[in-house]
TrEMBL record:
<keyword id="KW-0812">Transmembrane</keyword>
<dbReference type="InterPro" id="IPR018076">
    <property type="entry name" value="T2SS_GspF_dom"/>
</dbReference>
<keyword id="KW-0472">Membrane</keyword>
<feature type="domain" description="Type II secretion system protein GspF">
    <location>
        <begin position="212"/>
        <end position="330"/>
    </location>
</feature>
<dbReference type="Pfam" id="PF00482">
    <property type="entry name" value="T2SSF"/>
</dbReference>
<keyword id="KW-1133">Transmembrane helix</keyword>
<feature type="transmembrane region" description="Helical">
    <location>
        <begin position="158"/>
        <end position="180"/>
    </location>
</feature>
<feature type="transmembrane region" description="Helical">
    <location>
        <begin position="113"/>
        <end position="138"/>
    </location>
</feature>
<feature type="domain" description="Type II secretion system protein GspF">
    <location>
        <begin position="14"/>
        <end position="134"/>
    </location>
</feature>
<keyword id="KW-1003">Cell membrane</keyword>
<feature type="transmembrane region" description="Helical">
    <location>
        <begin position="309"/>
        <end position="330"/>
    </location>
</feature>
<dbReference type="InterPro" id="IPR042094">
    <property type="entry name" value="T2SS_GspF_sf"/>
</dbReference>
<dbReference type="InterPro" id="IPR003004">
    <property type="entry name" value="GspF/PilC"/>
</dbReference>
<comment type="similarity">
    <text>Belongs to the GSP F family.</text>
</comment>
<protein>
    <submittedName>
        <fullName>Type II secretion system protein F</fullName>
    </submittedName>
</protein>
Length: 347
């Protein structure tokens, strides 16, 4: 199932309401009871299960874990930390801020590409209308309308075939994205190659580092030890490429006694400018406070990176629309010139 996990917007709302309620002194059971009225049917059912499990004596994090992959792993892990350190209220509020930041970045991207996508859909709609009209209109001389598009498609059946092709292209793109998310055949090992693509690669890396630093700040601030904090942060990137560095970081800390920056350097996953900032942050104060400042800086960088990615996506869509227009301009021009040459030959 593609959408089994709780959405980040829903996760942010849940954590915000729980954090505010706990801060106000409300009982956990009453808060969970209220949460059974929010969200999708699947979310309400999952929260109901958590409520019943907590009534039976389980911790919230354990009850969440029982629901498999529905609750984000970051939420489950951080809730466990909050329960063990007595900072559940602050943990929920910090998680809410984190998820809301992710929603903001996603909304920024979607808003930026909305108009180009509308233009592309309108262009495909015009083509569909032309295909349909070529099937129902007949010239005065009889027969069929000239295939001005050159696709060999006419009428309602032609429109269905045309959109079938579009659906196939969309399915291929979605399959590639899903295969990457699931690390099919180890495709995420190609991440360093993606980072080498001008503009696109550095922006993608910045967004990933922003998620890593924010999670690391959350974990250290909640009192989690550096090894578990880094492993949780690597996991929050949703990339097996980054998760692979967890054991190397632990070995560097336990066996060689490296600092946080030294352990991250041992993973060979992070760029030197980022590691330098971590080293500077370590020298400027406590780990939790210094990484929190670094997380704030990278969140700002992530917003700029998302604008870059949305600009790239916008450019690709506009180039697609322009390519379609140019194709039809040349197609109509060639037909017009062919008609002129044919008329000249008859004369």
């Amino acid at each position: 199932m593609f959408f089994r996990q709780m959405g980040i917007a829903a996760a942010g709302g849940f954590c915000r309401r729980m954090g505010i309620g706990l801060r106000a002194g409300a009982d956990v059971l009453r808060l969970l009871q209220a949460e059974t009225k929010y969200g999708s049917p699947r979310q309400r059912e999952a929260i109901s299960h958590v409520l019943e499990s907590v009534k039976a004596g389980f911790q919230i994090s354990d009850a969440m874990k029982q629901r498999g992959s529905f609750f984000p792993r970051l939420m489950v892990s951080m809730t466990r930390v909050g329960e063990s350190t007595g900072t559940l209220e602050r943990t929920f509020l910090t998680l809410a801020t984190h998820f809301e930041q992710q929603v903001t970045l996603r909304r920024l991207f979607l808003t930026s590409i909305a108009w180009p996508v509308i233009q592309l859909v309108l262009g495909l709609g015009v083509i569909s209308i032309v295909i349909y009209l070529m099937g129902i209109l007949t010239p005065s001389t009889g027969g069929q309308m000239m295939d001005i598009l050159g696709f060999g498609l006419r009428g309602g059946k032609g429109v269905l075939i045309f959109w079938g092709y579009i659906a196939c292209v969309a399915a291929i793109l979605w399959s590639l994205y899903y295969a990457y998310r699931q690390n099919f055949a180890g495709v995420q090992n190609l991440v360093p190659l993606l980072y080498m693509v001008p503009k696109f690669g550095p922006s993608l890396q910045t967004i990933t580092l922003s998620r890593f630093t924010r999670t690391l700040s959350l974990a250290l601030g909640a009192g989690l030890d550096p090894i578990r904090s880094v492993k949780l942060s690597l996991d929050s990137t949703d990339s097996d490429y980054y998760r692979s560095g967890g054991e190397m970081f632990e070995a560097a800390i336990r066996d060689r006694g490296d600092t946080l920056a030294g352990g991250l350097r041992a993973t060979d996953l992070f760029p030197d400018p980022f590691l330098h900032l971590v080293e500077v942050a370590e020298m400027s104060g406590t780990e939790s406070e210094s990484i929190d400042h670094l997380a704030v800086e990278y969140e700002e960088r992530a917003r700029m990176a998302m604008r870059t990615l949305s600009g790239i996506a916008t450019g690709v869509i506009w180039l697609t629309v322009a390519g379609i227009l140019i194709f039809f301009i040349f197609r109509f021009a060639s037909m017009y010139l062919g008609a002129i040459n044919e008329a000249a030959g008859l004369n």
